[in-house]
């Protein structure tokens, strides 16, 4: 069957009434959490993992993807009206968007962000549908050593991409590895690191760790900040729609943003932040009036927002085809797949094509829903910004606890929820990224399994791990992904020190 036929079948699945409801719930929740500062789609999906444990797998995954897309949409509202990015990928939008809002042009800024997100999301989702089958064909030739090399690449890029320090990222990753060792060894049947506690024989639940570190840890961190000055929300003045000049300045930026964001999101070391900064720099370089940048240029909102949403679809390429998460939300979505006994990768396209193509097609529908939701209901999203922070985070804490009890009614599980929540708070306090820990717990056992299979096939010969051209190439890329940022960081520090010394002289 061709990609068009698969996509048409997926549209029929996505158009089923219950799946439409799941998509609508997902995009509504996603937009709401994107609007609220400090609450991203990763936290929301983590909270819903235990609550959706017994629901339909296809519908739940459609809802999670809707939350991801909606979160990318909603972050622009906070950036433009509050100058506080709801997501790290919306930082660039705040540069020009808030200036436009202060100048009384908040409506056109929100409009170009919403329409640009729709255009880029549509193009990127179609790109996902047509590129994914080719990556699946490539991945089907992978053996154990190629998969192990791919996992190593994922570990290195995830550690480098999250946080400011590769060392802290690796430390967080190895915490996840240590937690992944708990339980019964799948090959020998021996108990590891269970300390005689029966509850640990099945290992540590990914949902418990994700909810604890993203929800409990974040709540404790926010509570520890104490009272802060209230942020001023800029009112939306004048018309919400763009004029002819705004359209003329925006449409090329939307297309360029989509072209930049999608491939960067699809890279193992990608991420929406890189794409948005590149899009902003590109628009500034190509602008007819570059002096407007920094004072409210609409291209500086249109391009980065398009790149932001295109990268969300790009992120799903390695997740669905190879089972590799490149963002925190993708890592939690991977946990969602595994919650239903599904492992994203090339075999999923062969064994469960209805679910995969239904998920991809649902993104097209969710994208249209988001356009309808965002512009007419902007007043509602702005009012969400007035919710008191104590009420908001108290609700998150309550929902996280009730969700964990519902999925696994155990006192020991609640104790682990609190312990991991405290661990997440401490890591957040000292600047250690949380996502690599979750990735280590999810992918650690898979990497160990592939390594042991490769060594069993080669009768213990470690050298065979790099004899495959594909495996060797992946390991070289992994080494480069770790060393190049490290070298650039050291060189940058050296230049700063040299400049300081020159200034003292």
Q: Order of strands side by side in the largest beta sheet?
A: 1-2
What is the number of strand segments?
A: 2
Query: Shape, please?
Result: globular
Structural class: mainly alpha
State the distance separating the first and last CA atoms: 72 Å
Secondary-structure element series: HHHHHHHHEEHHHHHHHHHHHH
Number of helices: 20
Largest sheet: 2 strands, antiparallel
Percentage beta strand? under 5%
Which ranges are low-confidence, i.e. pLDDT below 50, for 5 or more consecutive residues? Answer: none
State the helicity in percent bands: over 70%
Oligomer state equals single chain
Cα Rg: 23 Å
What would the average pLDDT be, to the nearest integer?
78
Question: Any overview of this molecule?
Answer:
InterPro entries: DUF112_TM (IPR002823). This is Tripartite tricarboxylate transporter permease. Keywords: Membrane, Transmembrane, Transmembrane helix. The chain crosses the membrane at residues 20-49, 61-82, 109-135, 147-163, 169-185, 316-335, 355-379, 391-411, 417-444, 465-488. Pfam families: TctA. The protein has 505 residues and is an all-alpha fold. The chain is 74% helix and 1% strand. It is built from 20 helices and two strands. It has helices at 3-14, 17-35, 41-51, 57-82, 91-102, 106-139, 144-161, 166-180, 206-224, 244-266, 272-286, 299-322, 328-339, 346-351, 353-374, 378-384, 389-407, 411-429, 435-457, 469-504, and strands at residues 183-184, 191-192. Strands 1-2 form a two-stranded antiparallel ribbon. Helix 10 (244-266) packs across helix 11 (272-286). The radius of gyration is 23 Å and the shape is globular. The protein starts with a helix and ends with a helix. The mean pLDDT is 78.
